[in-house]
Design a protein that fits this description.
2 copies of one chain form a homodimer.
Chain A (H helix, E strand, L loop, with lengths): L6 E2 L14 E5 L4 H12 L4 E6 L19 E3 L8 E3 L1 H11 L11 H12 L2 H11 L6 H21 L11 H12 L3 H4 L12 H11 L2 H6 L3 H12 L13
Helix pairs in contact in A: 1-2, 1-6, 3-6, 4-5, 5-8
């Protein structure tokens, strides 16, 4: 019994998931918030079953797991009532606490943890600015300008911290929680009428950081190629969003 | 030397705050997110100085404390670099960890903590629906309907938990984090052309909960009367937002 590797749609019956007490991960393969959870699962080597959800036409039964229909969701079938958790950062902190593994990814010091959580939130303005750019070929004039101004915060912060990772000498929670968007930015080389890349003069340390993080084992196990992201974005430009192309050869 | 009890505006110089290492709390007196931080300070009896910020015309110097100009912010002058924390839930968790006092307000169990954080997030749809209603006399038709549907979640949850508080037998983090909006709902008795109150048949347990929480010491020390909230809302209806009326006699 295995769960089909495809995004479940409206009208498709609930997949049969093995009743083996193994954690269940509900995701859309291109969703950056879902990828946060996937990175935690990979970094902590947590066994799990994966169920893909079509976000355009959600299967009716998905609301039983995620009451607002959002991904990611994590179901814990080994616990009484088989509870489900949603919200990527809540899931990340829960997995970090329950599966400490070799080391914790969140800082133990309350102040550093608070500062890291605030830094993760500081990506929101960059995400808000770039999101419409992902899904068009000709972005509005100010979008990339606003995006770059929001990213300056991260160049400044990695420079100030003076460590290879935001987490210090080792990869940490900020690195994993912001990575999914840095994985997607290079797709703009392929999707925009005027190809776009991050300016290596403006973001030297951030681009070094990006290269370093791209070599992390959990990231390598999770990331999709920029060309695959670009292909997905193009299906959205054309109003024919195709989630399953994540599973097709490039 | 004391800090004036008024909202600091654009053009007003930075107040002189005693250099006594005491925590500094930046707020707007009617901001429900700020109130979350204030409730934590009151519940934990944490000494602090309060600086009020005019959100319509923010003082130029405020960006030094809160880079996006948001309230609440908490500055920690006793720590190296005098760091500032923002985001109400980040502040709440930091204060709970650093000032455990008699007891922690966040659950110690990672699963219960995750479930409580998700429940706090579930108030967002109710807040989004009611926010425009606070600032008009004739709300759009669906606003109150959507608001009530979103609140059903909380009636169901308090009923399911079967305890007087969301936190159990004692008040806890969910109770404090959602309270500020429940403090403001009764203002709709006074502000709407067609006065509005929560239906006691639809929300019996939630209304009992509200009454109970309104008697909590930290809540009593923090809450403003529904009529004061209504008066503030009216100044916004009229485009003459007056934050300082929080300090005037009703």
């Amino acid at each position: 019994m295995s769960i089909p590797q495809k995004h479940f749609k409206k009208g498709t019956p609930k997949p049969e998931i093995p009743e083996d007490g193994v954690l269940r991960y509900y995701t859309m393969r291109f969703c950056p918030y879902s990828e946060r959870a996937q990175l935690m699962l990979a970094a902590k080597k947590i066994p799990h079953h994966t169920v893909y959800i079509d976000l355009t036409e959600k299967p009716e039964w998905y609301i039983d797991y995620s009451p607002l229909g959002k991904v990611p969701a994590i179901q814990l079938p080994h616990l009484p009532g088989q509870p489900t958790l949603v919200e990527s950062l809540v899931i990340a902190e829960y997995l970090d606490e329950e599966y400490p593994g070799e080391r914790s990814l969140f800082p133990k010091d309350p102040l550093q943890k608070a500062l890291d959580r605030i830094l993760i939130e500081r990506l929101s303005p960059a995400v808000s600015a770039i999101y419409p750019v992902f899904f068009t070929t000709n972005p509005p004039e100010d979008a990339l300008k606003n995006f770059e101004a929001a990213l300056d915060v991260f160049e400044e912060e990695i420079t100030k911290r003076g460590t290879p990772y935001f987490g210090g000498e080792q990869i940490g929670i900020v690195d994993y929680m912001i990575w999914p968007w840095f994985e997607r930015f290079p797709a703009l080389k392929y999707t925009l009428a005027e190809p776009y890349e991050l300016d290596s003069k403006r973001y030297p340390n951030l681009l070094n950081w990006r290269l370093l993080v791209s070599q992390d084992e959990a990231v390598k196990a999770t990331a999709l190629d920029a060309k695959v992201h670009a292909k997905f974005m193009r299906t959205r430009h054309e109003g024919k969003t195709n989630y399953d192309l994540a599973f097709e050869p490039l």
